[in-house]
Fold each of these.
Amino acid sequence: MYDVIIVGGGLAGLINAILLSRAGLQIALFEKKSYPFHRVCGEYISNEVKPFLVRNGLFPTDINPTEITKFKLTSIKGKQANLSLKMGGFGISRFAFDHFLFQQAQAAGVTILQNHKVTAIEFETDGFQIIANRQSYQSKLVIGAYGKRSALDKRRKFMTKKSPYLGVKYHIKIDLPTEEIALHNFQDGYCGISQVENSTFNLCYLSHRNNLKNKSIDEMETTVLHKNQFLKNIWNNADFVFEKPEVINEISFEKKELIYDHILMCGDTAGMITPLCGNGMAMAIRSAKLLSEMIIQKWDKGRFNRKNLEHSYRIIWDQNFASRLWTGRQIQKLFGSEWSSNAAVHLVKQKWLGSLIVRQTHGTEF
Ligand SMILES: Cc1cc2nc3c(=O)[nH]c(=O)nc-3n(C[C@H](O)[C@H](O)[C@H](O)COP(=O)(O)OP(=O)(O)OC[C@H]3O[C@@H](n4cnc5c(N)ncnc54)[C@H](O)[C@@H]3O)c2cc1C
């Protein structure tokens, strides 16, 4: 019997595991892959998380993340706007960052079961039964931190809607400004580029699946993405580090239930902000901090009031994220067509408006 079982070992799962284990709870974390591994992500993290990471000894200084202070936006036709980022962020690969946090979780005493895919989570009277690799495990609480979409979600409402987006990621070597994150528009999608560690750049895009109709990824890039001159130049001048890109499908930005069958959802499993906001990782870290602190506060030597815990988590989550997610969904509508991408560049050119949009989709330092 564990106190808490955490399903999924991305940022939300690992931060929950570290904080809860450091507070003395018995934690098991199930991850279907084994560390270190790559995942589709733009790998730019807003600095709002930096004080928290530093305070808890979780900032990966030795990996040398890149400091990012500038933002460039380009339209399909190659118009551009530039903005200084007041808070800024840092670039680090998920390969390195998640592995670093995994090591911190091990050091904190978390039982980590890698290559363990959870296939069922059942709430029974006053606890959970979890099935992974045909074995059964028990816990008092379960945190769902398994990312954007999983077979475990089959009964959740958002799964009834098909999501038309796919995400593609590369690591490349290229000569570009290191302090800048750029977002380049193309028809029905956008592509981000910024530096991570080891002088490597992350090149990552989100596209509507219509762009891929009867095409390979390669063909889609040449015929759709390269209509934006900035993207064509990047592809022509880059050395690609991966043999094949990392690809994911069915990315959903729909509203999700925060708590389902008493499972406390966290990170993308609770709600995903559109990647163009560059804030999903910070939200995963922040929501894990909020949830684990809430559990620690309500935990009394293994006893707690489940109804009260769930109610309090709902309130605090809404206070922190509901409006950010809504703004992200509205901004996503500004991307996709030639007209709207020009309009977005025009908005960001009005510097105060650009800064306002960034503020609305980001939190403050914590
Ligand atoms: C194209 C794209 C670009 C993005 N760019 C950025 C960016 O630049 N900046 C930013 O802040 N955010 C970005 N995001 C968002 C960011 O990647 C996510 O918000 C963040 O990874 C959420 O972390 P998480 O811990 O909730 O989930 P994840 O990081 O997805 O972790 C979930 C984990 O659960 C595991 N898992 C899944 N199912 C099971 C199972 N059944 N059993 C066991 N384990 C399981 C998975 O293997 C995974 O390790 C981007 C997203 C996309 C799609």
Amino acid sequence: MPETLEELRSRAKSIRRDIVRMTTEAGSGHPSSSLSAVEVVTALYFGGFLRHDAQNPHWPDRDRFILSKGHAAPVLYAALGQSGYFPHDLIMTLRKLGSALEGHPNMTRLAGVEASTGSLGQGLSLGIGHALAARVDKKDYHTYVMTGDGEIGEGQVWEAAAAAAKYKLDNLTLFVDRNHYQQTGAAEDVLDMDPVDGKFAAFGWHTQAIQGNDMEEVLLALKRARAVKGQPTCILSLTRKGEGILQLLSRLKDENFHGKPLPPKYLDEALAEIG
Ligand SMILES: Cc1ncc(C[n+]2csc(CCOP(=O)(O)OP(=O)(O)O)c2C)c(N)n1
Ligand SMILES: [Mg+2]
């Protein structure tokens, strides 16, 4: 049963708590990159959009979600753990030697991970493979991909964008997590890709721009994307990097907080801010 709006909002908080707890325990990882993506991932896994079955992870008719910005693995692990793909406690083994919860998702180690990602720029191409396979196999599953906004500076993304439009892949939806930062600074300063939705539209995509940390907007966007025919959809998801712990991050004077776990002494404060 899909969760209600209120349940999804509380689910998002619980996913945020998992992200912060597991990265602090690991002493490494990318909490801020994971936190910006929480509403989208929560809506997919718990809002009735991603057709999936934790008891049957390789079900051929399942919808696919490919986290192309693989360094945000903690948000995926939290969603998979809370969905029952593995015992939830396993999230606390993130990045530990021997754990299947590697720093970047490894599809050969963990059921529910659709693609091994982390080398940025590849997930949309992989998603096209799934979307084309669905067509060849006459299956109605949908493929969702999420990239970062720094990631779309990779040329491969644009080869994929052209191919997806050429093949009219209306069974493919891309989220660009526009959190305005990448590794070394503001995404717009490193390589200005504005207007992101305009570029995808020029490539022949159907586009939407939404407030991606607003659960209601995410749900509406997913509904609209399902109705699009003859074109792939790009949802430009305007988010904040570190959403959920922004007061703490502003006190730490680090809006980007890329690839940094919270030191244990801030954990309680972070969990309290998330609520
Ligand atoms: C091909 C490639 N180049 C560089 C990196 C190193 N790297 C890891 S995360 C990151 C920044 C990604 O920024 P963005 O796509 O905006 O994701 P965010 O963390 O902001 O969600 C970079 C450059 C990588 N993982 N892969
Ligand atoms: Mg970014």
